Structures are given as C-alpha cells and as structure tokens.
Amino acid sequence: MAWDFETDAAYQELLDWADAFVRDEVEPLDLVLGDPYDKSDPRFAALVRPLQEEVRKRGLWACHLGPDLGGQGYGQVKLALLNEILGRSRYAPSVFGCQAPDSGNAEILAHFGSAGQKERYLAPLLDGAISSSYSMTEPHAGADPTLFTTRAVRDGDGWVINGEKWFSSNARHAAFLIVMAVTNPDVSAYQGMSMFIVPAGAPGLEIVRNVGVGGEREGSHGYLRYTDVRVPAENLLGEEGGAFAIAQTRLGGGRIHHAMRTIAQVRKAFDMMCERAVSRETRRGPLARLQLTQEKIADSWIEIEQFRLLVLRTAWLIDKHRDYKRVRKDIAAVKAAMPKVMHDVVQRAMHLHGALGVSNEMPFAAMLMGAQALAIADGPTEVHKITVARQLLRDREPVPGLWPSGHLPTRREAARARYAEALERAVGDQ
Questions:
Q1: Would the CA dihedral through 43, 49, 55, 60 be positive or negative?
Q2: Which fold has domain 245-393?
Q3: Are 22 and 89 in contact (CB under 8 A)?
Q4: pLDDT 10s digits, 308-366
Q5: Is CATH 3.60.20.30 the right assignment for the domain spanning 9-113?
C-alpha cells in the first residue's frame, strides 16, 4: 500500500526552512511594501531581491517549472505542501517565484511559446525581473468565452486587436499581456479563439481604469480597451484557434494553486480565532470556556482538515494522471468548496473579536472580501458545482422499472426469491 500522510525527510526539512523564512523574513514585508507586482519600486529591489536569492540557494525558486526553466519540476502534492506556507503572505509567492498570474503565464509560454517568445518574455518573467497580465475576461461576458467579442483580424504581416477586457489583474505593472481574442467568428468559440502577446505600451492599448476589490482605494485589476492594437504575426501564442486549450492548461493548475494558498489564509484566521478564545476574558472566564465558542473552533478545524484532504487528494490525482481533463471534477469540487470554507472560518474568527474584528485594525474584513473574490475568480462557484454534478451523473443509468433500486419491498422480494431453496431447507431441518 502507498497510503502515507508524511512527506520525505529531505523535503520536510525544506518545508521547515520555508516556514520559518516566510514567518520571519517575508510576512513583515506585507506591512511595509506596496504592490508586489510593481518591480519599479526601489524598495522591492532593496528588500525582496536578497530574499529571492536565498530562495534560489535553497532550490525552491519557481518549483512549479521544470529544471530546464530553472525550477525543480515538483508535482502538485509537493507544491501543495509548499503553498500552504506561502499563502500566509502576499509577498511570499513573489519571493519564491510562483506568483499568479505570472506563474500561469510562464507555464503556457513554456508549453506553447516560440523560441523568440521565450527569450523575450519568458526568460525575464522567470527571473522575476518583470510582471505580466492575463487579459481574458470581458465586461459583458465575465469568464464565458462563448460570449467574448474582442476580435483579432489578420492584416498583412500582423494582427489587429479591437475590444475591451475586464479585470486584467496587474495590467498597470505588466511588461506584457496575454490576450484572448476571437480570430474566427464562424466556428465554435472553442476552435475560433487565439492567444496573443501584447507588449505594454502598445499603441491603442488603454487602461480605462484600475478597479479595486471591496474598499481598496487603489485597484490593480485593469479595465482595458484595445483600439486597433497591432502586433506582429510572431506574437500569436500557440496555434491559431488554440486559445481554449491553452487557457485550460493554465487554469487547471491555477485553480488548485489558489486552493493551496487559501489553506494558509484559513489557518491564519483559525489561529487568530484560537488565540482570541484563550485570551479574551468575560465575566465567566475566557471565551474558550463557552460552548458556542468551542463549537466555532471545532467546526472550523473539521472544515479546514476536510478541505485540505480534498486539495491534497486532487493534487495527488493530477500527479498520477498528468491530465487536467481526467481530474476536472475534482478540481471543480475544490474550487466550489474553497470560498465557503474561507468565508465560514473567517466570519467566526471575526465574530469572536467583536468590534475589533470588524475594524480596519484586523485583517478579517479584507479576508472576507477575499473569500468572495475566490468564489468568482477562474469561474464562479455555480459553474463548478454544475461541472461536478454533470461529471458525477454522466455514467448513471435510470432505473428500469417503477420502483427505485433502494425500494425495500422490491429488494426484500428479490432476496427471498434468491434464497428460497436454502430457506426451505433450513426450515425443514428444524
């Protein structure tokens, strides 16, 4: 049997180092630096670059990529265990070279990019020298590619792009964007869309505004307008008409990576909940003595452990099959469960902190908004639940007769018929 709930000793040593490194060196950056995607900030070079070098020395830089691209080529289980640590800090993914959307963009450039595209865009992206953006969703269509209207039309030795894109995260800091556009409107969207690399500052590319989430004053999600944006033919990423397959390669891994880091955030909220329970005194003693508080803590721990096991099992299945399509149901289940677990645990932690919990002096309000964002990013929860149900029902057959297969009178009659002779002999021998 291969069942085991421990990792190998050598990797556990690296995880222990990462745990202490993130806690002592990286998490404090969240409190003193701005946007981790702003590589032009001189403080980034002064504080983050040395930490990135430490990560490289430990062999933990961009572990999701293969050795040919400077990573370790870790499978999803190993990445899950590492990302459970990195998810505690918004700067940790950048320090470890695995920040989204750059990690997903690097993955599709590595799989589908030409030699020239890899040299110009992938190399500096892997080095952490630049940031990128994934420009897919549209304001009228959300993440449904069958409703996209942004067009790319072949014109001589290039392509001309027109349309609008919504929530292109980090577009303001990106050196380039990967854009999905309709190239053949006469066929299905699954065969008629293509991916393009658009350099930042290309004529006709406009950031209409940067949209924030919740109460953010300064947003980082670009509302973009492409007006006759011309790119050379070599900026086509992959094959013409291949955008949907490329997107699924990117999104399958991205969804599971979000879940891995969510575990870290939920555990963070849980730790604050437990600390509050044993610290806050009431007239009857600490909150921890009250049964409703104990219920909140018990429910939270159970839900976290259930979700973590689902994530790890899904990661194991991806490693086993090496085919996201075969694990589609499981990835969708993780994506559907993720925002609810985070919301419920964070809300309980917030509630135990009283007025302090809802104030801007604690992180719970932002974490609750993060849970809502997780329910929308990379496809809304409802879509993923539909995927799970359809996958589960596709091989089911209707019952041939009137009664359900679990109908007790019918089963009892069938059982009596099956054992009739044996029952008669048993009675006769008495």
A1: positive
A2: Butyryl-CoA Dehydrogenase, subunit A; domain 3 (1.20.140)
A3: yes
A4: 999 999 999 999 998 888 999 999 999 999 999 999 999 999 999 999 999 999 999 99
A5: no
